[in-house]
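Sample intake sheet
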Amino acid sequence: MFTALGNLVAYQWLGLLPDSRLGQAVQFFVMDVVQIFVLLGVIIYLMGLLRTLVSSEKVREYVQGKPKWMARSLAILLGALTPFCSCSSVPLFIGFVEAGVPLGVTYSFLIASPMINEIAMVMLISILGWEVALLYLVAGLVVAYVGGVLMEKLKPERWVEDYVWKIQMGQVAGVASDNSLRGRHHNAVAEVKEIFRRLWKWVLVGIALGALFHGYVPQEWVETYLAGDQAWWSVPAAVLLGIPLYSNAVGVIPIIEAMLGKGVPIGSALALMMSIAALSLPELIILRKVVKWPALIWFAGILAVAFMLVGWLFNYIFA
């Protein structure tokens, strides 16, 4: 549906050519903006309704009453089963924070969701074989689990923006306590408006940057700078190169296939894939309006190091 809307606006209403860089950038921008705004509105509204029925304290007590490994594993499983890109995962991240889910568990979801999904796994199996796909799956699960644990050790609750906590506590300006069905609806709508008011500009900026890179950074340029280079720094270069780019795991697999055909080492190609999928600049821009700079820097640093370690490991195994 979102792809069709992007095609309609870019190629029919605006008359842009599908094979032009501008056309691809506009199509991507329209598709992703609509998708993220819809997800943001629906998820925050549902979380607002849920919180009027079940308090965030009860949710927190329920999660904390379970073994940490179980809560984290369930979050990772949910992330793996939701085929969202990194920016599309942010609305669910916000919803989990508002619902009182511990942030360490929530970060595990945020890492797993864009990195792993069933469609990407099927495509990886068809391109690289089940052994490589299985290793990638294991690597993604480990990165999501360990990354969440490390973020939890840093006590990231202190770095969540104050307005998110106010929403969680039902302190949104202008919202009265009303437990009728109509009152619950109005409270949920007020939360959606509050989140939109704070995020809409940053969503547009983030997706616009992603669309520009999507449309104007040629695949051949990526292949040229990474192909045929087994030097240790090719993996960090792949991770850094992936940050400004933007796609989901499924969308980037054809690029990875072409890169492998050009002689790019498999570890470097997968490091690029993970970086594009889970550590994109648009995601970081949007996430910054939810968490403060220290949390963002630690999150990006932990993932960058993890992706480099995975890339080096794959290059060593398949050298």
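Comment: The mean pLDDT is 82. The CA atoms of residues 265 and 298 lie 28 Å apart.
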